[in-house]
Amino acid sequence: MQVTIVRDKEQMGKRAAALIAEQMRAKPHFVLGLATGSTPLPLYHELIRMNQAGELDFSTTITFNLDEYVGLPPTHDQSYRRFMNVNLFDHININQAATHVPDGMAADPDAFCEAYERMIADVGGIDCQVLGIGSNGHIAFNEPGSSLASRTRVVKLTKSTIKDNSRFFARMEDVPTRAISMGIGTVLEAQRIVMLAYGANKADAVAAALEGPVTVSVPASALQMHPRVNWIIVEDAATKLKLEWDR
Ligand code: PGA
């Protein structure tokens, strides 16, 4: 694994965008795996800037997002589809039909999960997957205890996640209790992985994932088994690392 520690999240976004742009320019019809949350926003800012400056073309890019809430329509302001439109897709020259976010309204979510895996396989697999890490070490909605071989599936959200999310919804019964998530096994099949982290609340998870044992207790530790992972970490999330990494 290659680990780069940077000063601030703007640097994190720029480094990640430069890495991804280099790969995209080398391969038309690039298949990019994307993530939601606050972590990838500095990356998306930079990708938008590059696209609008004419430095990076998305016209043939295909994207797959990691996850989506079950029961939220794409127009819901908390849906991950809407997050992606607002924070990236609406601002770049991507073909919207080539952007894939799991369908939280699928009539048969289990069948949808199988179809999502097939769609990824049909375009030749993911060339580069962007990831964030949860403070408990999760990746996508693969919470601690998820099988390292897991595939795209419906997962139950933990009580603490449901409670955390309740602030975004008018009524407790509107808060999603399930999500569709790529599995850890799915993520590990990407050709390359770019893992981003910032914030002191991520420091323990980053250290456990990078320097601890590979374990289902820390889903991100599974990345140790992947041959081409770039970690780009802001200093405040790197304070618990013991080994010498690039700065
Ligand atoms: P965050 O979430 O980017 O909002 O910190 C990351 C994650 O939980 O995967």
General description of the model:
The chain is of the alpha/beta class and 247 residues long. The chain has one domain (2-237): Rossmann fold. The protein is 30% helix and 17% strand. Strands 1-10-9-6-2-3-5 form a seven-stranded parallel beta sheet, with helices on one face. A three-stranded antiparallel beta sheet has the order 4-8-7, covered by helices on one side. Helix 1 crosses helix 2 (41-52). The chain is globular, with a radius of gyration of 17 Å. The model has no long low-confidence stretch (mean pLDDT 96). The structure holds 2-phosphoglycolic acid. Residues 37-39, 132-134, 138 line the site of 2-phosphoglycolic acid.
Write the layout of secondary structure elements.
Blueprint lengths: L1 E5 L2 H18 L4 E4 L6 H12 L9 E4 L1 E3 L10 H8 L11 E2 L8 H14 L5 E5 L20 E4 L2 H7 L12 E4 L2 H5 L3 E6 L5 H9 L17 E6 L13
Parallel strand pairs: 1-10, 2-3, 2-6, 3-5, 6-9, 9-10
Antiparallel strand pairs: 4-8, 7-8
